[in-house]
Structure formats: C-alpha cells, structure tokens
Amino acid sequence: MNTSENIESRRSIKHYDPEHVMPEADLQELLRLTKLAPSSFNMQNYRILVVRNPELRQQLREVAWDQAQVTDASVLFILCADLKAHQADPSDYWGHAPQAVQDILGPMIKPFYDGKDQLIRDEAMRSSALAGMTLMLAARDLGYDSCPMVGFDPDAVSKLINLPDGYALSFMLPVGKKAEEAWDRGARLADDKVVSYDRF
Ligand SMILES: Cc1cc2nc3c(=O)[nH]c(=O)nc-3n(C[C@H](O)[C@H](O)[C@H](O)COP(=O)(O)O)c2cc1C
After folding, report:
1. What does the mean pLDDT of the chain come to?
2. How far is ligand 1, taken at its centre, from the CA of residue 16, in Å?
3. What's the CATH number where 20 sits?
C-alpha cells in the first residue's frame, strides 16, 4: 500500500472483531513506527497507554458513550500529553547528536517553555496528535483499522487509568480488525473554506 492509498483507505471504523487478538509483534511494530513521529525539540511529549485488560476496557466503554470500539477493537491506545517533558535532561532527546548541536539545543528547551502553560499544553497536544496520526497510518499498513475518539468523560477516564499529575488526555485510539464498513465518508469542506494562500 503506498502512502496515498494508505491515507485514502483510512476510515474511522466503529465495529471490530472482538475475538481478534493483536500479535505482540504487530503491537511492537505499531509502537516503533509511532515513535518516529516528529515532536518539537524531539521531546516526544506524549505518552501512549496500551489498554488490553477486558474489565478495564468495559469500564472505559461505560464512560465513553457506550461506544463498542472501546471494548471490541484488538487494542485500545490512549494518547496522553506529557506536560513536563521540557523539564527533563535534554540529553534524553539529544544525547546522540554531535556535541555542538547538543550545546545549542539543550539550553534552549527550558526557557522556551517555562511558565508558558498554554504553549506547553498546545505542544503536547500537537505531539500526541501527530503520534496518533502516525499510529493510524501504521495500523492501516499492517492491515488494521482505527477510530480516533474524544467521546468520553475525561475525568472518569483519567481516574480509571490512574493518569498521573503532569499529563493530560489527548484522545483514545482503538485499533483492530474491521467487522463492519464505515458509513459513507463525510463530505470534506470546499477548498475555499479550508485553504487560504499567503494571508487570511
Ligand atoms: C479528535 C477526534 C475525535 C473523534 N471522536 C470520535 C468518537 O468519539 N467516536 C467516533 O465514532 N468517532 C470519532 N471521531 C471520528 C470522526 O467522526 C471522523 O474522523 C470523521 O467523521 C471523518 O471520518 P473518517 O475519519 O472516516 O474520514 C473523532 C475524530 C477525531 C479526529
């Protein structure tokens, strides 16, 4: 499947084969590819929760508008935003770079973010969204479908998964084997509503 086919064949799928078990090798390959997503300063300021426990999945479904994909997809990923990544040792992100690059980028990170809560959250949401999109496309490539989701009670989900301080929920992402086709794809807005050139 080439990239265009991959993008065109991705749909938000709501019904999955509940019997399908994702092989560990597929899960690890999805995670490997997802981690290649870009992030500002390479901070990788997202965290991926892999939820497979059936009882927990049922509890999550109950606070996610009873959406079947939460329990029936092979794996439920929950993409979280890491709001403290800028405080870590920059060598976590740049340790393999030439020293000259480390000397420039390392000291830039903390001052760029410190005290700027909105920027920190925006950045972590950007990173988790890019990671999630990467995961969706990787899933297609491995023969899986997916459905990004924010239809859930965030407080209840945070409690169920023990979301630590310093993290925020980004979105849920069930991935599995499609059991029913998606509805016809929702029309996309005309270019003149979505695209501007040079200036608004
Ligand atoms: C952030 C986000 C949240 C979404 N939440 C849900 C959801 O809770 N349940 C659901 O069935 N679909 C959800 N969707 C899927 C959208 O409805 C879907 O992407 C849109 O209708 C376009 O369809 P397509 O993805 O098949 O092209 C969500 C999509 C995004 C990006």
Report:
1. 97
2. 15
3. 3.40.109.10
